[in-house]
Design brief:
Rossmann fold; seven-stranded mixed beta sheet; ATPase_AAA_core; alpha/beta; nucleotide-binding; binds adenosine-5'-triphosphate; 4 domains
Length: 470
């Protein structure tokens, strides 16, 4: 992968990775001399690992490259020296020279922290995590001469782990089970995802627990073909944006999408990302997308995206680059990833979403999740009675016009304490308490979004709602 960049003559590259040792092993390619520098060992030849120049000073190391044709200097942790003006200057002075002699500076860094003065010279590349074949190699290395078979299922399952994490997980599986048991790897992966602080495995919702929303369900079911063996001719769906008032089942539908596709569900916690420092949030977002890529397939669920992405410049509330960086990376990744992913993003307030997010082609569809129609309310009542053991009669379908799924659920719960009549009397639905907002959102959706709800009775439903909400 690095070869194309070197052939194209990029003189300064930044390889983002948490695995500097693996980077040294996998990044080499024919046609260049690869050397590595760090501030403790100086400059080493990667063939044989001998120190060829005892240069510890970063400025001297950078200048070493000026006189080294066809050399790639892999500089470890150079970003830690960017506070020194001479380091920045040496790179600025060197880039044209390196380009002319076919050399390049290849920074190995866990984070994107390039000073403004150098931004335009550096090109960022992610070091992909080990693939299935590499995972099998790791298994072979661990077993050595022992008579233990490698396990391809486990190797595939381990994708998303770094080499170090995979080694540890495989060794742990051997100690615990005597084989490369897939269950151990699943546990380790779950922990790893949680440890990242950004993502969590989430239990997919059963499709039977989602009342109505059949237009959305159909849409997803029809697109699922693109992810099958016969799906090569179809453009791969990338994501669906669900907009609507709170409690209408946007999150629930996102969770059920994982059941429809039979994929793991990963929740990406954008709030946790936002609190990071400038540069740090982009690094963590890159790390998250790299792990997702390595999973191969997953539904990525992101709640209330408008809150998370409301700091980009175009939203008028810039936070100095924190959000813009992670947002930009996320959108690029979404467009370019070759993994089978479907992003399910939910939003209550679309006016806060940056326009880049909404532009055509970004999401395969924007769905408006409206208040449930009579048929949907009937289904939701049945679901809630089953779930909570309540006894809301189906005759309540009409009385619950204007109530969201979440409100019908609350009614089911309250009725167990207060009796159905009292519980109903005490409940004020959002469509009444926030009438203007609900109407505004509907107005917005009329021309800009598809309707996620079950189409049955829509004419009637619209009429009733206008009367009630107007
Ligand atoms: N269509 C539905 N079918 C079944 N249950 C529903 C439906 N809509 C809402 N619910 C119930 O209400 C709960 C809350 O809904 P959910 O969190 O999915 O709404 P939301 O639209 O994502 O709300 P928010 O915008 O506040 O995140 C669900 O967990 C579910 O129990």
């Amino acid at each position: 992968m690095i070869r194309n960049y070197l052939k194209a003559g990029y003189p300064a590259l930044c390889l983002l990775t948490q695995e500097p040792h693996r980077a040294e092993q996998v990044i080499r390619c024919e046609g260049w001399r690869f050397v590595a520098w760090d501030c403790v060992r100086g400059i080493r030849d990667l063939e044989g690992g001998v120190v060829i120049d005892d240069i510890r000073d970063p400025v001297e190391a950078i200048r070493w490259l000026d006189a080294a044709p066809d050399a790639i200097l892999m500089a470890h942790n150079l970003h830690l020296f960017f506070e020194i003006p001479e380091v920045v200057q040496a790179i600025q002075n060197g880039v044209n020279r390196w380009k002319s002699i076919g050399s390049a500076l290849l920074m190995i860094s866990p984070s994107v922290r390039i000073p403004q003065e150098l931004e335009k010279f550096f090109h960022l590349i992610d070091l992909p995590l080990p693939d299935t074949a590499a995972m099998l190699d790791i298994q072979r290395e661990i077993t050595g001469d022992l008579d233990i078979a490698t396990n391809e299922t486990t190797a595939r399952l381990a994708r998303g782990l770094t080499e170090f994490e995979a080694e540890t997980a495989f060794a742990y599986a051997l100690v615990k089970k005597g084989t490369f048991a897939p269950s151990v790897i699943s546990d380790v992966k779950g922990q790893m995802i949680r440890k990242s602080g950004l993502m969590q495995f989430w239990e997919p919702a059963a499709i039977e627990d989602v009342g109505g929303l059949s237009a959305l369900k159909d849409f997803i079911q029809r697109r699922a073909v693109a992810f099958t063996e016969n799906g090569a001719a179809f453009p791969r769906p990338k994501g669906i944006l669900l907009v609507g008032i709170p409690g209408t089942g946007k999150s629930l539908a996102s969770k059920a999408t994982a059941s429809i596709l039979g994929w793991p569900l990963i929740r990406l916690d954008l709030g946790a990302l936002k609190n990071s420092l400038v540069g740090e949030s982009e690094r963590r977002m890159r790390q998250a997308t790299r792990v997702i890529d390595a999973f191969g397939h997953a539904v990525i669920w992101m709640d209330e995206v408008e809150k998370a992405f409301a700091g980009t410049r175009s939203s008028g509330k810039s936070d100095g680059g924190t959000t813009a960086g992670m947002f930009g990376h996320f959108l690029t990744w979404m467009a370019e990833t070759t993994a089978s992913i479907l992003v399910m993003a939910t939003a209550n307030d679309i006016s806060k979403l940056p326009p880049e997010f909404m532009r055509a082609g970004r999401f395969d569809a924007t769905f408006f999740v409206d208040l449930p129609c009579p048929d949907e309310r009937r289904q939701i009542i049945e679901i809630m009675n089953r779930k909570w053991g309540s006894d809301i009669p189906l005759a309540y379908t009409d009385r619950l016009n204007g109530y969201t799924g979440a409100e019908i659920e609350q009614l089911a719960k309250d009725s167990l304490y207060d009796g159905l009549d009292d519980a109903f009397r005490n409940m004020v639905p959002l469509s009444r308490s926030m009438k203007e907002e609900v109407n505004g959102l509907r107005e917005w959706a009329r021309t800009r979004a598809r309707i996620a709800n079950t189409p049955e009775d829509r004419g009637v439903q619209r009429k009733i709602r206008r009367e009630e909400v107007a």
